[in-house]
Amino acid sequence: MDVGPVPGFSGGQVVTVFRSRRRAGSDEAYARTAAAMLASARDVPGFVDFATFTGDHGDRVSIVTFATPEAQAAWRDDHSHREAQVQGRDEFYEWYSVQVATCTGATVWERPGG
């Protein structure tokens, strides 16, 4: 299966780790908002990558990478993103945490011909 190119990870990028647990019954509205927010984030100059993972007990981890602190700040401060954050607290989440860090180095390996 071709999953596309390996993302261009490198030192100096800004990585946001968003951990959360959603409220029961929020799936449909959350899916609409999440799709809109991902599309909006991808439009920010300096967007690098997004991935999300769900644990066995329903906790989720989303990782968003931007090329620069300025790009991450543009996304953090985006008006529609701010509105979605309010909606998330009101409707979607039992809890969440956000950690933002500057990447000090990165290594990517890909199987040849894979």
Short description:
The chain is 34% helix and 30% strand.
Task: Give a verbal description of the structure.
The protein is of the alpha+beta class. The protein has a single domain, classed as Alpha-Beta Plaits, CATH 3.30.70. It is built from three helices and four strands; from the N terminus they run βαββααβ. The mean pLDDT is 91.
Strands, count: 4
CATH level 3 topology: Alpha-Beta Plaits
Shape: globular
How many whole angstroms does the radius of gyration measure? 15 Å
Low-confidence stretches: none
Q: Note the quaternary state here.
A: single chain
**Spatial order of strands in the largest sheet:** 2-3-1-4
User: What structural class results from the helix and strand content?
Assistant: alpha+beta
Mean pLDDT: 91
Distance between termini?
Answer: 8 Å
Strand content: 25-35%
What percent of the residues sit in helical stretches (DSSP H or I)? 25-40%
The secondary-structure element order is EHEEHHE
Highest CATH level, the class = Alpha Beta
Q: Tell me the major beta sheet.
A: 4 strands, antiparallel
Question: From the 3D coordinates, which CATH architecture would you assign?
Answer: 2-Layer Sandwich
Instruction: Give the count of helical stretches.
Output: 3
How many domains?
1
Architecture blueprint of SSEs:
Layout: E1 14-22, H1 27-42, E2 47-54, E3 60-66, H2 69-77, H3 79-92, E4 93-102
Antiparallel strand pairs: 1-3, 1-4, 2-3
Helix pairs in contact: 1-3
Name the descriptors.
114 residues, alpha+beta, Alpha-Beta Plaits, four-stranded antiparallel sheet, 3 helices, 34% helix
